[in-house]
Structures are given as C-alpha cells and as structure tokens.
Write a structure and sequence with these properties.
The protein is α/β, with parallel strands linked by helices. It has helices at about 15-30, 50-55, 65-70, 75-80, 90-100, 105-110, 125-130, 130-140, 170-180, 220-230, 255-265, 310-315, 335-345, 385-400, and strands spanning about 5-10, 35-40, 85-90, 115-120, 145, 150-155, 160-165, 195-200, 205, 210, 235-240, 250-255, 270-275, 280-285, 305, 325-330, 350-355, 365-370, 370-375, 375-380, 385. Helix 1 links the parallel strand 1 (about 5-10) and strand 2. Helix 1 (about 15-30) runs parallel beside helix 2 (about 50-55) and helix 5 packs across helix 8.
C-alpha cells in the first residue's frame, strides 16, 4: 500500500515529537519514502541527526537555504509528496495554517502545497480545548484537512485529557486510509460492510441537562480505524464522543439511544456489526421542553423507562442479520460470568468483556484488559493499548468473515 509513496513529514515543536521517530521507522518498513522537515522548536525535542538517520534523507530546516531555494525548493518539496503529514501538529502550526501565515519553512510548505494534508495534533488539554484552537480545527476540517487524534490520556505536563498525540500505528493507519481514499484495495476485509457503534449516548432531561456515562469513544474509534485499515467499508455510528472519528469511514453522528437505533437500522444490511457503544440503559420518561427550574426545598422527581436494546435487536433479527455480531460488556465484578450471561441473553456471536473495576484504572484510560467470549469459551487477552486491542479484534473479525 505504501511502497513507493513519498511522505513529507513536518515535525512540530512538542514533546510528542519523539513519537515521530517511530512513525518514520514504521513508514519506511512499509516501503514509503519519508522527507523530513523540522521546525526550530522541534529541534529542542529530537535532533535532526536522529530524524535524518531514520528517514535516510537530510532534514529540511531553513526557509532561507540558498542551495535549495535557488531552485524554489519549498515549492518542489510541497508538491512532490503523495501526502503531507504534520506530527506533532502544534497549536501554533494549526493557527498558522488557518490564518494563512508563512514565516518559516514548515508553514510556507503548508501554504504552498496542493497535496492532501494529515494533521496529528498534540498539545496541553487546556490548549486543545481553547476556543481559538477548536475554531481553527473546525475550519481546517471544513477545508478538507485530515485529522488523526488527539487522544485522551496522561500528558507530559502532568495533566490528563484530550490533546495527547495519536500513537505511531494509529497515524500509520490514518495515512494508509488517506492515501487509499477509502478502504485499502487489497485488505482481507475488502468488499465487507461493517457497522461500528461507538461512544456514549446522551439522554435528555431538559434542553440543558442529560444523562450519560463515562465512555470516551476511544475503543470504538480504534476498532473502526483498524477495520478500515484492513479494507472494510465501515459505517461508524457515534454518540457524543471525546475523540474525533477516524479517517476513511462513513460517520453518522447521533445523540440518544433512539437516534443510534435508527442509524444502525438504516446502515444495515452489513456483513458484521461491532456494537462498542456504551448505550444508556434508561432514559427520562418525560423530557421537559423547557429548563427545569431549581426550587428551594423541592427536588425534581424523574421517572425512567428502558431504552431500546440495540445489540439484542440486531443479534435476534429474523431476516438480514449480519453474519457476525460482536457486543461489548464493561463489568466491575465477575467479569467473565456476567459477560457470558449477557452473550446468551442478547444472542450475539461474540462478547468483548472489559474489566472496568475502579482498581484497574481502565475506565476513561488508554488501555483495556479484555476477554473474548464466544462459543469456544473465554479467551483472555493481556492488558494492552486500545489500538492494539482494536487491531487484534479486527484480525479476528477478518478471519471469521473469510
């Protein structure tokens, strides 16, 4: 897929620049040529010598390099590549692109290129959440810039939240999807249509309040990305997740469980359904159309009713049932027993059981410790990152559908 492709890799100034070294190695392992560009700030975190040694090409650093610029080197660099990747994409670089600024080699390349650009943002959580950064990110998406991440997790600054740069393998998958302009042409899931649900659902109480859960959507997003990287046509039905959807998939955004049910039904038929969303079990029976006012000495009384059981409905379809239905179970105790019972009750083929007891620190974190429950019993997987879980599950799905 990447053999013979040329990637122009712009490394911005952030601690996440160290991940770009691994990304270069992975790209070259797959036959890609990597032309590195570093900002002056990037050199504070990784050395040009390290980058050059891994890339096998000299690092481009200076806009006013007489040897290169005599032949308009920045124009050639910006247009010779198959894809421009910015990793890490700092708040400064994103702001320069959105503002049309070009005062160094990296920003000038980004202004001069007509090549597709993929951004891997990395910054402090407060910076990522800043209205200016979110405005720039939204504008860049509208202009067709690709995004991978940022992920949620621990920061080098000691804080926790969205802003952590995606892992090298996640960026690699996004590069492959971007270059393929959709599913990989020769992947083992070529021609397979797979529905993936992800994220939480928000069940409204009134126009400003809702009931939700702590799901970030990171695992479902990773699964959709892994399936797309194997060639699947993925319909990604996502609630209001903390992480952005992956590249190369059809995204359907929903809010409530009933919205998600309708979206899943509309996406069928499919070869497989991976139901990774944390759908709320209940909703408020009578949603208020106006904000419920706080009254001293009086507490509101909420009556609940059950939400549709999307996993059970899809698993028990009389006609048009997907050939493989995978459910998820987040459990805090007796994980395997509860997940096995859930699989029997819902009627799905597999259950991916995840231990989210407080002592694991998994809920809302970057890793999972799962057990794959099927007709064969329980298969225990080691604790690993969410993308690694997704890649392993995607490989199992490909084997099952083949």
């Amino acid at each position: 897929m990447l053999a013979g492709r040329q990637i122009l890799l712009i490394i911005g100034g952030g601690i996440a620049a160290y991940k770009s070294l691994e990304l270069i190695r992975r790209l070259r392992d797959r036959g890609a040529s990597v032309i590195p560009v570093m900002t002056k700030a990037a050199e504070e975190f990784v050395t040009p010598m390290s980058v050059s040694a891994l890339a096998g090409h000299a690092v481009h650093r200076d806009l006013f390099d007489l040897g290169h610029e005599a032949e308009m080197g920045h124009i050639q660099l910006s247009r010779a590549a198959d894809l421009v990747v910015v990793a890490p994409a700092t708040a400064d670089l994103m702001g320069k692109i959105a503002g049309g600024l070009a005062n160094d080699l990296a920003s000038t390349l980004l202004m001069a290129t007509d090549t597709p650009v993929l951004l891997a943002p990395a910054m402090n959580v407060r910076m990522w959440d800043h209205p200016a950064v979110q405005r720039n990110a939204a504008w860049l998406r509208d202009q067709g810039f690709g995004f991978v991440g940022p992920n949620e997790g621990d920061m080098a600054c000691g804080e926790f939240g969205p802003g952590r740069m995606s892992e090298p393998m996640e960026i690699l998958a996004a590069i492959e999807a971007r270059l393929a302009d959709g599913p990989l042409a020769d992947g083992p899931l070529k021609g397979k249509r797979i529905v993936v649900t992800s994220g939480p659902t928000h069940e409204p109480i009134d126009p400003v309040r809702y009931i939700a859960n702590r799901s970030s959507g990171a695992q479902g997003t990773a699964i959709a990305r892994a399936l797309a990287s194997l060639g699947a046509q993925v319909v990604f039905v996502t609630g209001p997740a903390d992480v952005p959807p992956p590249e190369g998939v059809e995204v359907v955004r929903v809010q409530s469980a009933r919205d998600m049910r309708a979206a899943v039904q509309a996406a069928l038929p499919a070869d497989a359904a991976v139901m990774a969303a944390a759908v709320a079990d209940w909703r408020v029976a009578s949603e208020s159309k106006s904000k419920i006012k706080k009254t001293k000495g009086a507490l509101p009384v909420l009556e609940f009713e059950e939400n549709p059981d999307i996993l059970a409905e899809v698993s028990q379809m009389a006609q048009g049932r997907p050939g493989l239905v995978v459910g998820f179970a987040a459990e805090t105790d007796d994980v395997i027993a509860h997940a096995t019972a859930k699989r029997a009750r819902k009627g799905c083929d597999w259950i991916v059981a995840n231990d989210v007891s407080p002592e694991t620190g998994i809920m809302g974190g970057t890793e999972n410790a799962v057990h794959l429950i099927s007709d064969a019993g329980s298969e225990d997987w080691p604790r690993m990152g969410k993308q690694a879980v997704a890649d392993r599950l995607a490989d199992r799905i490909a084997a099952a559908l083949s």
